[in-house]
Records
---
Amino acid sequence: MNNDIEKVLYSEEDIAAACKRLGTQLAEDYHDKTPLIICVLKGAILFMTDVIRDMDIYAEIDFIDVSSYHGGTASTGTITLLKDLDTDVAGRDILLVEDIIDTGRTLKYLEDLLRDRKANSIKVCTLMDKPSGRVVEAKADYVGFNVPSEFVVGYGLDYEEKYRNLPYVGVLKPEVYSDK
Ligand code: 5GP
Ligand code: MG
Ligand code: MG
């Protein structure tokens, strides 16, 4: 698996430092609340489980799964709800945890859903942001890294469901795509 990587963008150490910085800030900002932290599956799973360890506050967690990619490397534009939350979000302070924001469509879909369900507040923490990819307006409140418009894998992010278990974020060799 490591042999398929052309270059490492963010090392384990870079990611740990970003989690510490974001987690500390989030704990400060939410110290007087009990947020519901929502992990957007599957990509944000590693990031969420790391960032919450740096948050010394009372918090609950839940999971939601939406899909927009259907296997490839380009967004299809249609969002499907694959797994709903278990928790009633009405009146709750929500922290959405995302792996990466590209076109913004996923985030907009989730924010609309949470607003419809009467969340009290909604904030977004993303490991990575690709501002150059925006198609709809969407903004993260907490960002680990601003990334160039490249397709990245690792630390939760997949290509055809693989590479999520790489401990760092990197870019695949071109032949990995052309081989399939
Ligand atoms: P958006 O709806 O903002 O276009 O994309 C959001 C989702 O698309 C992300 O949560 C992620 O699952 C996927 N995505 C966007 N950019 C990348 C990328 O560079 N690599 C991978 N593996 N997934 C991406
Ligand atoms: Mg995602
Ligand atoms: Mg994906």
---
Amino acid sequence: MATNRTFTMIKPDAVQDNHIGAITQMMEEGGFRVVAMKKTLLTKERAGDFYAVHKERPFYNDLVSYMSKGPIVAMILEKDNAVEDFRKLIGATNPAQAEEGTIRKRFAKSIESNAVHGSDSDENAKIEGDFFFKADEQF
Ligand code: IDP
């Protein structure tokens, strides 16, 4: 059964470009409630750990460099059917394929610099949320 939480990051370029507020507003207007929120800088090692599932992909090293080049905003979000509905709200990985009205359509610059992360399963949402937030930081 689908759980009601997902995990997201606003990625370094979107933070650098001052889009934290606009992106969070799209999330809230999409029906998501902020359960936890933190601005932080990932070291290369920590970014590597977060994306360890992609270790064998050709873009892994670039992705780790990109995600550690400046601060990100990590968030846990809540809504019924959160993981699936959030993937719809952010749109396709490649902004060229993202639908109108999605966060990536509006803010992503490329397939790598695509503005936001969204968990791809309930299991990963829990792992990723716990990667950044202690239990007493999740309300
Ligand atoms: P997702 O973020 O839409 O779930 P994934 O395939 O899980 O997409 O890839 C994780 C992240 O790796 C993407 O959000 C993007 O930043 C980066 N990425 C994915 N595919 C490519 C690629 O072909 N070239 C460069 N970066 C990529």
